[in-house]
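Quick one: structure tokens for this chain, please?
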Amino acid sequence: MGWTGNQAACRCADWPFGGTKRARYGLADRWQLALTVLMALLSGSQPGVSVASSATLIEGSARYAGKTPLVVSLIAPRGVERTVEDWTPFLRDHSRVMELPVELRVGKSQRDVVDDMLQRRADIAWLGNAPALEVVEAGAAEVFASMVRWDGGTGYRSVIVTHRDSPLKTLDELLDRKRRLSFAMGDPKSTSGYVVPNYYVFARNKVIPEQLFARTVSGNHLENALRVARREVDAGVGNDSELGAMQKRFPDEHARLRVLWQSAEIPESPLLWRLSLPDSQKQRLRDFFVRYGATEVEQNNLVKINNLKRFRASSNRQLLLIADIEMFNARTQIDRDPALSLDRRGERHQEVVQRAVRLETALRMQSR
């Protein structure tokens, strides 16, 4: 399988942390930082948030302006502004303990965060399992931690929801072509919003959502659930973790939902670090994440993020289930392509087998 230009760059351009990729803050940068903070104060917004960029310099990081910032890129299942608000207290502590400035980037889609890692714009990322697999396969990063919810759970489930008063009661009814329903899918890179339901609900039943439904729309988990609750679509995809968060913020809309289908448990979305970070830096990062939550203040900060209890150490092995699904989807796409000759179809299947072997090796063998 050939590497794309970005993937090849990620495998070969092994910039060290604090090296030449990002220039260290100079005098001009510190003046710009001071101006950014002043503008935020004058506008009444949160100190430390750049009003001219999608990136956020975490409050308190200015004291370490002489050092190269650690860049953290996050998905935004509840929207960009809410993600910045939820993660800032935790990352402020991270900046203080690590004695480094922290810059937060929040992607509007999972693709944005994947690109941040592939193009070396970020050092740490929080991603769904499926997009994390792409980053790991490209040789750009590896899984180092995962989330543990407040109830001790280490996984979540993809769900399809309908309105509580919907006549839809079964998957067979949802998949009935005669009904010509409308459906809200997730980001194509989302594990629970697309990859898992596409495998278990659609691919296994040999249907393509875009051909099955009269209308499909795409959004994050909250957007999809609200569309269903407001009867803008007949059904939509999300996950049970985000439904729990929705219940607190939108109790009336949540009460109008009914779960039609749920998947087997999926490992909680992983955190990844850039492979080229120094080992000493990786050890400090892992220690901070897995030890965080010892005080009441830290516990409250974790609850804000995703109703978390703590982080736990993890590895690329947690992506094995998603790799299996990806290989199944790849084979399915080959079989559905009418333009392929029998010989070419066999060649493509062999390429998938070879890719599966490489993935198996990459996911089971991990640096420490």
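The longest helix spans residues 342-364.
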